[in-house]
Design a protein that fits this description.
The complex is a heterotrimer of chains A (623), B (228) and C (278). With 623 residues, chain A is mainly alpha-helical. Chain A contains 20 helices and no strands. Chain A has helices at residues 11-29, 39-43, 47-65, 69-75, 100-128, 139-157, 162-173, 182-200, 218-221, 225-253, 266-297, 311-345, 352-365, 384-393, 395-409, 418-441, 443-449, 453-483, 489-515, 530-561. Chain A is globular, with a radius of gyration of 25 Å. By secondary structure, chain B is an alpha+beta fold. Chain B contains two helices and 13 strands. In chain B, the strands form three sheets. Chain B has a seven-stranded mixed β-sheet, with no helix packed on it. A four-stranded mixed β-sheet of chain B has the order 1-5-13-12, with no helix packed on it. In chain B, strands 9-10 form a two-stranded antiparallel ribbon. Chain B is elongated, with a radius of gyration of 24 Å. Chain C folds into two domains: 4-75 and 106-120; 141-259, Immunoglobulin-like (Sandwich), CATH 2.60.40. Chain C is 38% helix and 21% strand. Chain C contains five helices and ten strands. In chain C, strands 3-2-1-5-8 form a five-stranded mixed β-sheet. In chain C, strands 4-10-9-6-7 form a five-stranded mixed β-sheet. Classes of the chains: A mainly alpha (623), B alpha+beta (228), C alpha+beta (278). Chains A and C meet through α6, α12, α13, α14 and α15 of A and α2, α3, β7, β8 and β9 of C.
């Protein structure tokens, strides 16, 4: 029996208390007075009030969602309960829920909505660039669009795979019924939702002109919209830190009996390496933004060259976070692709240890390369050969991932399903992304490519061509398992081909445009580049339309057609596909034991392909 | 039998979906409208002069724009249209035409960061006049603002009002009885194009390097010049 | 069914043929057209650098694409095979070592080559900070680039410290750009010269280049610096010695009135960031 509370804690109370909290904080912040804060009168902007308002707003939102209930009850001496997990029905998706599967689906929908906004901003940016001079959005709004697009995508996609898929499937893959810290798991999601909302409020406070990097001193002199950027990224950093911590704790401590490290599915390794990066890099971001917030409010001088600070300090701190960050975006994609290829090649993962070495090698090296973003900045010019070498060394572990992907295809029985198409497109796109990265790592070549559309196209090839394609592969692969209903295959293939062709037709020419001398984040460009930019813009609109195909597929197949997917639509031997679809609330009837091989393909039906010996028989248990 | 083909459950779903699409459409429409909204453009009137086609552009610069703008404490340019002062920083000028500019500056001295910009460039005759007195350069410490269209090569420093001058202006738009400096000059627009104009004096009070707020927001110390 | 060894030979053959076709195209067709053109010796060596990178990448790219195309053709599940598994291969030591060895060789070659080019070209046109490790011989002409929100201006310390709004350089001279900023971070990008150097407040960031031919080049700001970043561009000129002498004399005359107000030439200027106008 569920006792009814006087007030239910759910999203509605969260939003109400969040708004109340915001205005209370806004009022409180205006009470802060000090002689050094007289400039508020001149500037008409009170950054302290806005920061306090964001803080109290987020606290109100979380309290309204019910995050305070557990600690309060414990302090009052009442017994703890995980009752949130026991509920059924659609209501649990609109509030604090500690079921890792509910959180996974919440992540998918919530992050998806914000990524849609980020994508819309990209369309608006490309609309402006149809003409070499000013066309539609005034100067401030254009830069704000650039910043909103970059910041939203960078912030939300960090959890784009770990949020929905690792939360849902890592506990299943390691034979656990939950994450190590279920409330923290829910907290990471709701922090992101608060963050995304805060970032959109930048529009109400004059936007921000800095792009996603927020370089000081531009970010110190910017309008109050900058505070939204700072609050957003700090909350994302907090969410990332907690997510990484939670994942590591879960994988380290909660693996089922017999599941040694060498038997983990490669996706779990991708999650582990990403989590290490999150745990070590995101706190740097939070501290950096805290310093930036102090520069903007308390008039400290961390990033003021004449006040004892340095803009270089911000650049260094930002990229000490920022370069691991781009691998936080890349590694889960690699994990997904290496997870999908065996399923659809009907083969074990080729070079399992090499792949794990690759993931861990990237994790380690990504902390040693950040100054390649500062090759022409004038700082540490003597160290450029070192950073050139360390950056190029990253191609070795990345090469491991490639050779493992290619090796898995070898002598397989490849089925070109929609998830497989996305995984193969990852190989192609990430190849171009990696090769274009070599130009940026080489100092003489970077002199031309740094800060140009070339570098922009490069990281879109790795993040959009890499991560987003892997993300869609994962969606098509796992969504039937998560909801119990198939996604339409024909619409899926249409989505894939339009997206793949439009993606390459957008960012391929952008590599060339960058080579021809167009800097990033500009609103005007040389007239001779107009034709190329029009081509890119039209391609980008088609790319945007391909996302609508996906949304249509999602709505049609999950809301209207509702074709049951069955337990194992792909014939996968991964453990989650041995469970019913959707996975029941309690996950397993009993904790499974695991055999030695995470990819036991080719054991039984191996029909003497070219005289090969049959492998060991699969020891994958049924739960 | 329509009802049989579409049972009530499906119709509910369609209704929810249609509502969702409509709400999303309205939100996106509002968003795009918000982004596209900018200051209204202003076309200065033609001048009656002997040298051929020309227009008169009459401006004032004020330390605090007051009720004319959302940010009341921000420094701003204003234009005069039919005898009244508006806040418009998007100007439409005819091509290959002389533009006679008059700036009434009611703001104090801020000082140029780069003194080089204290010398006028790109003007007809190479000089401008402060209260009728021709000159090519001012002491950079006396500068209050600049009138600059870098794309046309035009830059003119605007002399600031002395701190101890009597009758300082309190509220924008400033009446002519209050202390001000009058700057007049003429430049020629070239071929058609789209340019920005800006102020180069770090005059955004309270911001780091004096370059935030009004200096980085179209509609105060920045705007567009459309040469058509 | 073909033997697996046969697959390997076919992929190797196709890769070799593909590389043999693509490599000459890269060297002779694409290479000479690589950016940023051959406007200066530094730019020319950047073109060479880009070409070398392409050459090193070509065999790897061709191999991966050939492999991908071949695998998707040869290893597709045939009708009726959908339920069957492929060969249970878990790795192949020799091919893994071969892959590791070839990528390591390529990476080390690129790092050594890049470092050599960087040192030989005195920073390869990139900003090398206030004390570059390598400097060109002779006495390069110093030109200061001052970034400010939102215009570049230029000072010629050897010509009385005259400041100009346009950049004009004499042909056949070594130039030392001293790039600095008065406010936010900018980046001075002279595309055809092959020069890019960030402008930081209070920092003297030096980039070397040698002009080669009379030409025009584009200058753009390559670091987001605020509202009018997208408009921060102008055109520079490389002119003959005589033209340069008359141009600089004309600028000295034109900007004589403002000369007395300019600060003494300095490697950087120290704008007061806490300066609050009003």
């Amino acid at each position: 029996m569920r006792r009814r509370r006087l007030v239910e804690f759910n999203l509605l109370t969260g939003v109400v208390l969040g708004i109340v909290g915001f205005y209370v904080g806004w009022w409180l912040g205006h009470l802060v007075k000090a002689p050094s804060l007289d400039y508020f009168d001149d500037t008409g902007q009170n950054d302290i009030a806005l920061f306090v308002a964001y803080f109290t707003g987020v606290v109100g939102f979380l309290v309204g969602l019910g995050f305070a209930n557990y600690p309060v009850q414990r302090m009052l001496g009442k017994p703890p309960s995980l009752r949130e997990k026991e509920t059924e029905g659609i209501g649990r998706y609109f509030g604090l829920c500690t079921d890792h599967k509910v959180v996974g689906i919440q992540y998918l929908i919530g992050i998806g909505a914000f990524i849609f906004i980020g994508g819309l901003n990209a369309m608006l940016i490309r609309f402006e660039l149809l003409r070499p001079t000013h066309l539609a959005w005034n100067g401030n709004n254009y830069l704000t669009l650039v910043g909103l697009h970059g910041t939203m995508m960078m912030g939300m996609m960090t959890s784009g795979i770990l949020g929905p898929f690792a939360n849902y499937f890592v506990p299943l893959m390691i034979g656990a019924r939950r994450m190590a810290f279920p409330r923290i798991e829910a907290l990471t999601f709701w922090l992101l939702m608060a963050a995304g909302t805060i970032l959109m409020t930048a529009l109400a406070f004059g936007g921000f002109p800095t792009g996603w990097t927020g370089y000081a001193p531009l970010s110190v002199q910017a309008n109050m919209g900058m505070d939204a950027y700072i609050a957003f990224f700090a909350l994302v950093g907090l969410s990332m830190t907690l997510l990484g911590l939670n994942m590591l704790a879960t994988v380290i401590t909660m693996r089922a009996p017999g599941l040694a490290w060498g038997r983990l599915p490669i996706f779990v390794w991708g999650t582990v390496s990403t989590s290490v990066l999150m745990l070590l890099a995101a706190p740097v971001l939070i501290s950096t933004l805290f310093m930036l917030a102090l520069d903007r409010t308390a008039q400290t001088g961390f990033f003021n060259d004449q006040a004892g600070g340095s803009p270089y300090l911000y650049e260094n701190l930002f990229w000490i976070f920022g370069h691991p960050e781009v691998y936080i975006l890349a590694l889960p994609g690699m994990g997904i692709v290496l997870e999908l290829l065996p399923v659809f090649s009907r083969k074990p993962l080729w070079g399992y240890r090499l792949a794990v070495t690759g993931l861990l090698g990237i994790t380690l090296l990504s902390f040693l390369v950040w100054q390649h973003h500062l090759f022409v900045s004038g700082i540490n010019a003597d160290l450029r050969p070192f950073y050139m070498l360390s950056t190029e060394l990253i191609s070795l572990p990345t090469g491991f991932i490639f050779v493992c992907a290619l090796g898995t295809l070898w002598a397989g029985r490849i089925r070109l399903t929609v998830p497989m198409l996305f995984a193969l497109a990852w190989v192609f796109n990430f190849l171009i992304g990696g090769l274009s990265g070599v130009f940026l790592s080489d100092v003489p070549s970077d002199v031309t490519t740094h800060g140009s559309f070339f570098s922009m196209a490069h990281f879109h090839y790795t993040i959009m061509g890499g991560l987003v394609f892997a993300f869609f592969g994962a969606v098509y692969y796992w969504l039937p398992k998560m909801t119990g209903f198939e996604l339409d295959e024909r619409l899926g293939k249409l989505h894939f081909w339009v997206m793949f062709l439009a993606f390459n037709s957008t960012f391929g020419p952008l590599l060339v445009i960058g080579f021809l001398g167009m800097p990033r984040r500009v609103v005007t460009y040389a007239g001779y580049l107009q034709g190329a930019n029009e081509w890119v813009s039209v391609s980008a609109f088609v790319l945007g339309a391909s996302m609508l195909v996906f949304v249509a597929n999602l709505v049609w197949s999950q809301v209207f057609a509702r074709v049951p997917a069955g337990a194992n639509p792909w014939g996968s031997k991964s453990i989650e596909f041995q469970l019913p679809s959707p996975v029941p609330v309690h996950d397993f009837d009993r904790i499974p034991t695991f055999g030695p091989d995470p990819y036991p393909y080719g054991g039984i039906e191996e029909a003497g392909f070219d005289g090969t010996r049959p492998a060991v028989s699969p020891a994958r248990p049924t739960p | 039998m329509r009802r049989a083909i579409y049972p009530a459950r499906v119709r509910t779903k369609v209704a929810i979906l249609a509502t969702g699409v409509a709400v999303a459409g309205v939100l996106i429409g509002l968003y795009v409208t918000l982004l596209a909204t900018g200051p209204a453009p202003y076309t200065p009137p033609a001048a009656q002069a002997a040298e051929g086609r020309s227009v008169n552009l009459t401006l004032q610069t004020v330390a605090a724009v007051g009720k004319l703008a959302p940010n009341e404490n921000w420094v701003s340019y204003l234009v005069r249209e039919h005898g009244t002062w508006h806040r418009s920083t998007v100007w439409t000028l005819p091509a290959n035409t002389l533009v006679h500019v008059t700036i009434y500056n009611f703001d104090g001295k801020s000082g140029l960061r780069n003194p080089f910009l204290g010398q006028a460039r790109g003007l007809v005759g190479g000089r401008f006049a402060i209260n009728g007195k021709p000159t090519a350069v001012i002491d950079p410490d006396d500068a209050s603002h600049t009138f600059a269209i870098p794309g046309l090569g035009v830059i003119v420093p605007v002399m600031g009002v002395a701190d101890d001058a009597p009758h300082q202006c309190d509220d924008a738009p400033c009446p002519m009885e209050t202390a001000h400096e009058t700057i007049t000059f003429t430049f020629r627009t070239g071929k058609a194009g789209h340019y920005r104009w800006q102020c180069f004096v770090p005059c955004a009070a309270g911001f780091v390097y004096g370059f935030g707020g009004p200096m980085q927001t179209v509609g105060y110390m920045d705007g567009y010049v459309d040469v058509v | 069914m073909w033997s697996r060894r046969g697959h390997g030979w076919r992929i190797a053959a196709l890769t070799t043929i593909g590389t043999a076709i693509v490599l000459p195209l890269v060297v002779f067709v694409l290479g000479p057209n690589m950016p940023p053109g051959k406007g200066t010796p530094v730019a020319t060596s950047q073109v060479t650098d880009n070409t070398v990178l392409l050459v090193v990448m070509t065999p790897f790219t061709v191999f991966i694409l050939v492999y991908l195309g071949y695998a998707l053709t040869a290893f597709r599940a045939k009708p009726g095979e959908e339920g069957l598994d492929g060969a249970p291969l878990r790795g192949h030591f020799r091919s893994q070592v071969a892959w590791l060895a070839s990528t390591t060789a390529a990476v080390l070659f690129l790092a050594i080559f890049g470092t050599t080019e960087l040192l030989a070209d005195n920073g390869a046109g990139g900003g090398a900070g206030p004390n570059p490790v390598t400097k060109p011989g002779g006495a390069p002409l110093p030109v200061q680039v001052i970034g400010q929100q939102w215009e570049f201006t230029y000072r010629y310390p050897t010509y009385g410290g005259v400041e100009t709004a346009t950049l004009v350089l004499p042909v056949g001279r070594k130039i030392a750009f001293h790039v600095t900023s008065l406010d936010a971070i900018h980046s001075f990008w002279a595309y055809e010269l092959g020069v890019k150097a960030d402008a930081n407040p209070g920092v003297d960031n030096i980039a070397y280049v040698e002009t080669k031919k009379i030409s025009t080049f584009h200058v753009r700001c390559a670091e987001l610096c605020g509202l009018w970043h997208g408009y921060m561009s102008d055109t520079g000129h490389v002119v003959s010695d005589a033209d340069f002498a008359s141009w600089i004399a004309a600028r000295k005359r034109q900007f004589a009135p403002v000369m007395k107000y300019l600060p003494k030439y300095s490697s950087s200027y120290n704008p007061d960031p806490t300066f609050r106008a009003g």
